[in-house]
User: What shape does this take?
Amino acid sequence: MSDQQPNNQLNIEISEEVAEGTYANLAIITHSHAEFVIDFVNVMPGTPKSKVKSRIILTPQHAKRFMKAITENISKYEAANGAIKDLEETQFPMNFGGPTAQA
Assistant: This one.
C-alpha cells in the first residue's frame, strides 16, 4: 500500500492559531471587476470603533462558489435544526445590551 494520496485529494494543514478562529458579527463586502473583498469585523457594545479582524480576497468565480457553498450549508443546517431567523425578523437591540445611544 502506498503512502501517497490520490491526485484528487488535497492535503490541508491548519496551525493552532488559525484553528482557534476569529469571531466576527459583521461582514463588509466590496468588489471590483477582478476581486471580491470580505472584511470580517467584531463589533462590541460600548466601543466607538471596531477593527477588521480578517480580510479575505476572492476572485469573482471563487466568490460565486463560496456563495453556493454557504447557501447549500445553510439549507442543510436548517433541515437539521429549523429555520434561522434573520436579524430583521427579530427585535434585536442595536445597543447589544450596552448603554443606549443618545443624540
Observations:
- The longest helix spans residues 60-81.
